[in-house]
């Protein structure tokens, strides 16, 4: 079992990080929270969850153990797979997710793509008591992403959303309208808003 991978960050998109460790490049699926935390770094350490299926070995990487812990809790809920759990952790920070679950806010959880009311309620019912043990504090900080050109942000956000499985046409439309309303929005903010619109 891989606990973590530490090495040089050679490639990074909002959905995937490539970390080179002793000459091997690992393609690791990341959430938006982890993307923000490691952006701009040369050396990174990602805590790993390894999903071994018949047709694939998939690595999910997290900047903190707490985020991985939440991911592991989410995939214990029936109907939540690795990609849905990553989608939830991209739409909400670990701190926000804990607050949503402990306060029973199924409406906010339902805004995440692929999460219906029943699934949102199931997540809250099954994880409410377990969340208390994660020890996630209010001090979750996400480094803001600075980019000089909006076209850069536009392209990166669209690419990330398409990678997450959204159709091209509505994605372009959503990202364009978000950047029109808030030209200074970061890639992360644009994607989070788009996740709620699509």
TrEMBL record:
Keywords: Cytoplasm, DNA damage, DNA recombination, DNA repair, DNA-binding. It comes from the Bacteria. Residues 136-148 are annotated as: Flexible linker. Residues 72-91, 107-126 form the Helix-hairpin-helix DNA-binding motif class domain. Pfam families: HHH_5, RuvA_C, RuvA_N. It is found in: Cytoplasm. The keyword Nucleotide-binding does not apply. Residues 149-198 are annotated as: Domain III. InterPro entries: DNA_helicase_Holl-junc_RuvA_I (IPR013849), Hlx-hairpin-Hlx_DNA-bd_motif (IPR003583), NA-bd_OB-fold (IPR012340), RuvA (IPR000085), RuvA_2-like (IPR010994), RuvA_C (IPR011114), RuvA_C_sf (IPR036267). Belongs to the RuvA family. The RuvA-RuvB-RuvC complex processes Holliday junction (HJ) DNA during genetic recombination and DNA repair, while the RuvA-RuvB complex plays an important role in the rescue of blocked DNA replication forks via replication fork reversal (RFR). RuvA specifically binds to HJ cruciform DNA, conferring on it an open structure. The RuvB hexamer acts as an ATP-dependent pump, pulling dsDNA into and through the RuvAB complex. HJ branch migration allows RuvC to scan DNA until it finds its consensus sequence, where it cleaves and resolves the cruciform DNA. Homotetramer. Forms an RuvA(8)-RuvB(12)-Holliday junction (HJ) complex. HJ DNA is sandwiched between 2 RuvA tetramers; dsDNA enters through RuvA and exits via RuvB. An RuvB hexamer assembles on each DNA strand where it exits the tetramer. Each RuvB hexamer is contacted by two RuvA subunits (via domain III) on 2 adjacent RuvB subunits; this complex drives branch migration. In the full resolvosome a probable DNA-RuvA(4)-RuvB(12)-RuvC(2) complex forms which resolves the HJ. Has three domains with a flexible linker between the domains II and III and assumes an 'L' shape. Domain III is highly mobile and contacts RuvB. This is Holliday junction branch migration complex subunit RuvA. The lineage of its organism: Bacteria, Pseudomonadati, Bacteroidota, Bacteroidia, Bacteroidales. The gene is ruvA.
